[in-house]
UniProtKB/TrEMBL annotation:
InterPro entries: Cyclic-di-GMP_PDE-like, EAL_dom, EAL_sf, Pept_C14_caspase. Residues 454-733 form the EAL domain. Coiled coil: none annotated. GO terms for molecular function: cyclic-guanylate-specific phosphodiesterase activity; cysteine-type endopeptidase activity. Pfam families: EAL, Peptidase_C14. Residues 265-286 are annotated as: Disordered. SMART domains: EAL. This is EAL domain-containing protein (Putative c-di-GMP-specific phosphodiesterase class I). GO terms for biological process: proteolysis.
Length: 743
């Protein structure tokens, strides 16, 4: 009996596999009335040499299968391709190339075509339509069934039928378009339906193949010289072929590299040579080779059809376990609580057998006790048979809650630690109720864990974050002006607050703060989207309010956004489009944002001086105002209040619950009056106490006596809303009585 053994997570596993199937025929099949070709078979040999080239090729010996001339029979080709599809894993790559003729039989409606193989007999096809290599077979039984990324290049006549069909018959659309539209399948097709194949004596190749070879040999390379399928297809399409080739290049087409340049001794010498300016290459990202696998795993988790098909009826958490099991193509999964050397199953998928897996779970329990937080995940193996991925989810004393995935696809395990990081983030989010934020949470976890993501994943995250922030709505919370008379109690202004749904009480802090994990581009984009949304929504709400005049509006902004001209242009544009006067807008700068340069960034003056000058210029040019927000919870609060050109100071509710709350509020009020007391300003700055409610230990009477006449919170009797409302007379009387010190 083989005893269980543990192998380190991230250790050597079966790597991603690449297959190339190259088919070429000069002579046609039996009874096929088509002219012979000159270069189809030599095209296959040339392409094989590039893919296996010792310097630039990315395919291994034995992974390139050729069907050439008389050996290119439809039966052997179909069996070979079908075997590849059935044994494929999500991280595998399949490249199929065909050079030759295609045939649309007379009895066909030209919505399908056959690749002409050595044994194709048109007379047999009428009775036995599957006695040949049909394009629909490739799409349905090969590319749809292939678990990884697949690519097709057709250098032949009638190739355009492959995509033209979906515009001509809805039945064919269902079988053809799915493969073409899916991001894992990409195609480059020689010519539209009805055209003849093109060969060139000058090139000694088919015309399309000639340009494919040029592209793969480096003509279509990126800055580092790598050639992806998408770059190859784009290059070929730009070569002026008439009619032009058809190509579809989705996500995997852009990320799957077919050839790349070597870093040989000659290259290293050239780079160091003073006479050669050389080239610039970014440092290799450790996740670069995992990009396709990560993207595919995200698709399997967050596509709507996958989520709906794998949500459990037993509860939200159980549905999450099943979703993870499916995404990893695993036998089963469970959440297990380890307590010392014992364990108990919290929830599980249907095929999880605790008794059978007990020896492996015991090993996992021991390892969890030894190294509870040393790694994001580990793998327990049972000889050469079974593997169990363990991802610790939470810790409480000697108890560890762990996600256990039994026999996941080896290609997924190849991802190593990134896989464990992703699974923990999925568990901590809510993919069923909020897939948009959940997927962004997963990408952010990768960002914070590994520091930098490959460019493709970074761009995907930016687009996803735009959608997440764009899905938010703006609600408006009133700032109340205090008075001892009920008629003097009124709404002074409104603050715009972001929410995921109308009526939601809390801000979506986790989504808003994600931007800081990604850097300035995300922060500025977040603030630009929200300020435009706030201004437009406020203009609509103000127009519907019915009262005379427009009350001021305040919107939160990060320090880094105020240093961005793009953000400020968005502010000006939104004000103009909404018809709001700039003087009605105040941008609130959070105390939680440091006013300091980023690492490596240089400011011409001391930080507060530089930022002061920046705000002064913006206030003069844009005619908007600035306030400090969250005073009492951030950086150098007194210095900010004293030195920045602010019109308002907003005190965080945490001050109200401080033992020296009155002393701190007194100090804030003195700083707010300082400029006016010195004759440097006509009016003191407005002080607003945020978060005031009935539980506040400091009374409105005490606040009012300090000269602070504005508060913001739930004392107005209503939660923040998408509409603007005046205060109810009963609320005005209640607030006035509290200001007077009456119970």
């Amino acid at each position: 009996m083989l005893l269980p053994q543990r192998i380190a997570f991230g250790g050597l596993m079966a790597p991603s596999r690449r297959w190339a199937v190259l088919i070429g025929l000069d002579q046609c099949g039996r009874n096929v009335q088509l002219p012979p070709l000159r270069y189809a078979e030599s095209d296959v040999l040339a392409l094989r040499d590039v893919l296996l080239d010792q310097d630039i090729g990315t395919f291994d010996d034995g992974a390139v299968k050729m069907f050439v001339g008389p050996d290119a029979t439809w039966r052997e080709i179909k069996i070979f391709l079908r075997d590849l599809a059935l044994q494929s894993a999500p991280s595998d790559v399949l490249f199929v190339y065909f050079a030759g003729h295609t045939l649309v039989p007379q009895w066909s409606d030209q919505l399908d075509a056959y690749l002409v193989t050595a044994d194709l007999d048109p007379e047999v096809l009428a009775r036995e339509p599957d006695s040949g290599l049909r394009m629909s077979f490739l799409k349905r039984d090969i590319f749809d069934a292939f678990a990884g990324a697949s690519f097709l290049v057709l250098d032949c006549c009638h190739a355009g039928v492959y995509t033209d069909a979906d515009r001509r018959n809805i039945k064919v659309l269902q079988s053809y378009a799915e493969a073409v539209d899916r991001p894992r399948h990409n195609a480059l097709l020689a010519c539209p339906s009805g055209s003849v194949t093109r060969e060139s004596a000058e090139y000694g190749h088919g015309t399309l193949t000639h340009h494919v070879l040029r592209a793969l040999r480096g003509r279509a390379g990126d800055e580092a010289g790598r050639v992806s399928f998408a770059q190859m297809a784009t290059f070929v399409a730009e070569q002026g072929m008439d009619p032009p080739p058809v190509h579809t290049a989705h996500v995997y087409g852009a990320t799957t590299v077919l050839t790349h340049p070597p870093m040989s001794r000659h290259d290293r010498q050239a780079l160091s040579s003073p006479a050669n300016p050389g080239i610039s290459r970014p440092c290799l990202n450790p996740l670069e080779d995992q990009t396709s696998s990560i993207r595919q795993l995200l698709d399997r988790m967050f596509r709507a059809d996958v989520r709906s098909a794998h949500q459990s009826h037993q509860g939200e958490r159980d549905g999450r376990v099943e979703l993870i099991r499916h995404a990893l193509d695993a036998e089963s999964a469970a959440v297990v609580e380890f307590v010392g050397s014992s364990f108990g199953v919290v929830n599980r998928t249907a095929r999880f057998d605790k008794d059978t897996l007990s020896p492996m779970l015991e090993i996992a329990a021991v390892d969890g006790v030894k190294h509870p937080r040393a790694t994001p995940g580990y793998v327990v193996s049972h000889g050469v048979g079974r593997r169990m991925l363990c991802v610790p989810l939470s810790f409480a004393g000697d108890r560890t809650l762990t996600l256990v995935v039994v026999d996941p696809a080896l290609a997924q395990l190849d991802m190593g630690e990134p896989l464990a990081v992703m699974l923990r983030a999925v568990w901590e989010s809510d993919p069923a109720a909020d897939p948009l934020q959940s997927e962004m949470t997963v990408l952010t976890a990768l960002r914070t864990s590994f520091g930098r993501l490959p460019l493709k994943l970074y761009d995907d995250a930016f687009s996803l974050y735009q959608q997440l922030i764009g899905s938010m709505i703006m609600v408006f919370q009133p700032v109340v002006e205090l008075d001892q008379r009920a008629t003097g109690v009124s709404v002074q202004s409104f603050e715009a607050l972001a929410r995921r749904n109308d009526g939601e009480l809390r801000a979506p802090w986790s989504a808003l703060r994600m931007a800081h994990d990604w850097g300035d581009r995300f922060v500025v984009e977040r603030d630009a989207i929200l300020v435009a949304k706030a201004i437009h929504s406020y203009a609509e709400a103000d127009a519907a309010s019915g009262w005379q005049g427009t009350k001021p509006l305040s919107v939160n902004v990060a320090v880094r956004s105020l240093l961005s001209d793009a953000y400020l242009n968005q502010v000006s544009k939104a004000l103009t489009e909404a018809g709001l006067q700039p003087r009605s807008l105040t941008l609130e700068i959070s105390e939680q944002d440091p006013i300091t340069p980023e690492p490596g960034e240089r400011w011409p003056q001391e930080p507060l001086v530089y930022f002061h000058n920046r705000l002064t210029t913006l206030a003069r040019e844009l005619r908007i105002s600035f306030a400090v927000d969250d005073f009492g919870v951030g950086y150098a609060s007194l210095a900010r209040m004293a030195e920045l050109p602010l019109t308002q100071i907003k005190v965080d509710r945490a001050i109200l619950h401080h033992p020296m709350a009155l002393e701190e509020l007194t100090l804030v009020a003195r700083v707010a009056r300082y400029a006016s007391d010195q004759g440097q300003a006509g009016q003191p700055r407005t002080v607003i106490v945020e978060g005031f409610d009935d539980d506040a230990p400091v009374s409105l009477y005490e606040i009012f006596r300090l000269g602070i006449h504005h508060v913001q919170g739930y004392l107005s009797g209503a939660v923040a809303s998408t509409t603007l409302r005046e205060l109810d007379p009963a609320v005005q009387e209640r607030i006035a009585s509290l200001v007077r010190g009456e119970k």
